[in-house]
Amino acid sequence: MAQTLNLQRNTEVFLSTVSLNDGDAVTAMTPANTWKVEILAGYAVSQAAATQDINSLESGTTPDRSSKRFKTAINTVEFNFQTYIRPTGIENTTGATLIHTSGNSMPTADWYLWQALMSNTSVHTASKLSSTWQAGGKFAGAARAASGNTAAHNPNFGTSVNYNMYFKLDNVIYQVSNTAINQAAVDAAIDAVATTTWSGFGTNLIELTGTKRNNAVAVFGGILNDGSSVTANSNAHVTTATHSYQPFDQWNVAGTISTASFIKNRLSSLSVKYQPDGGSSTTYTFPVTALSFTYNNNITFVTPEELSKVNTPIGSFTGAREVTGSFTAYLRGADGDSAQFLRDIANDRRPAPTAFANANLIVGGATAPYLAFNMPAVQFDVPTHGIEDIITIAVNFKAQEPISTVTTGGEVELYAKK
Question: How far apart are CA 72 and CA 109, in angstroms?
């Protein structure tokens, strides 16, 4: 293959349960276990090394002033990228007319990333798709058993399910092995299209070369080692051994190929229900000027510290699960509006009134397409004022397990609708 520059504009990213670097055959990649991820500009993927400097410091007129550097460990791979939130319309779990005959719900184009983030169930088990999304485009955060065409789910996992991510940087292809999705950060600024920033880790960043690179190109498309070109091998219609991955924006809904929708943030809405100390429950509904939502697994990787060798990461552990966010709104004085909300929160002296507060963030508004985040138990920080041309308030919040699902998760439920 002739030398050429590699352009960010030509980057493609894929997630799979198949590892080409470990000898899996190219035919092992199917739309049941491999997906393309349409990303935006500004992504990052890198792996650095840890070093230790040993310095000599002696007295005298001719001291030993030498310095040595040792490479002690290869750090974990870190990556992040941004995707648009795109509802697909695959919101049911019954029937056999969808892309997969199991009829699993796949209501957003990045449904598999949400599952990799929030669940201990792999997106591909027993040689078939295994979605934890429920009927109606719902992803319930609390642990639950399997039901018809819906896989079992548990958010309390000590280690994440490992996947493989492929970064096709134009003509150079890297595999990130043992990938763990650590965080999703949703941004709903009103002058933009709804996005999620995904970040995570892996144990190794491996460039695919030789036959392994050709195998990757045979699936993802591009220029083979001999300089010839092949077309990407995807399919939105059926799952067959001759097609290798599921595209991001095209989905088979009830036998019809359709394009996943974009979400316009300008239509987003917020509904907050709160019962002040000694008062009655009040529903506050007001327009917002910005929304954010973050789900974080706080993953850390473990690396040995043996002498006389370069150590490499051997695995990861999850930390405390954190579901947080914020919103801003204009300061308005009507009943049930933002000024009353601020007053009630500021005057509440209960240290943890989560049993009396909930929030529903609907990115895209009440009319489809949208992605909603329903949090049944929320702790609100005291709102702060923003003194600008128009006075605003800013509110941070933390979602917690409700009493009904304590110790089993349930901080948030996702609802997607096209």
Answer: 40
Q: Is residue 218 part of a domain?
A: yes
User: 338: part of which helix (H) or strand (E)?
Assistant: helix 338-347
Question: b/e map of 333-369 (b: 16 or more CB within 10 Å)?
Answer: eeeebbbbbbebbeebeeeebbebbbbbbbbbbeeeb
Q: How far apart are the first and last CA of the chain?
A: 43
* pLDDT for position 236: 66
Pairing of strands 229-230, 250-253: unpaired
What pLDDT, in 10s, does the model give residues 201-253?
999 999 999 999 999 999 999 999 999 999 998 876 665 667 899 899 888 77
Residues 357 and 238 in one domain: no
Please report, for residues 100, 111, 200, 223, 395, the alpha-carbon distance to residue 169 in angstroms, rounded to integers and kept in the order given: 30, 24, 18, 12, 39
d(CA 131, CA 339): 42
**Averaged pLDDT of the chain:** 90
Note whether 109 and 184 are same-domain residues. yes
Phi, psi dihedral angles at 295 (to 5 degrees): -115, 120
Alpha-carbon gap, residue 116 to 182, rounded angstroms? 9
Structure tokens at 41: 């500009």
pLDDT at residue number 239: 56
Helix ranges restricted to H, 110-223 = 111-118, 210-220
Count of alpha carbons within 13 angstroms of residue 278, beta-carbon side: 5
Has this prediction a pTM greater than 0.85? yes
Residue 175 CA to residue 403 CA, distance in Å, equals 42
Confidence at 95, pLDDT banded by 50, 70, 90: low
In three-state form (DSSP H/G/I as H, E/B as E, the rest C), the secondary structure along 287-303 is CCCEEEEEEECCCEEEC
Say which residue the tokens 């150079």 belong to: 172
pLDDT at 243: 84
Q: Do 109 and 248 contact (CB within 8 A), yes or no?
A: yes
In whole angstroms, what is the distance from residue 150 CA to residue 140 CA?
12
Q: Which of 23-37, 152-166, 322-336: highest mean pLDDT?
A: 152-166
**Structural domains counted in the chain:** 2
- Residue 16 identity: S
Q: Quick one: 137 and 240 in the same domain? A: yes
Q: Are residues 137 and 241 in the same domain?
A: yes
Q: Which domain holds residue 230?
A: 8-47+77-259
Backbone phi, psi, residue 259, to 5°:
-100, 135
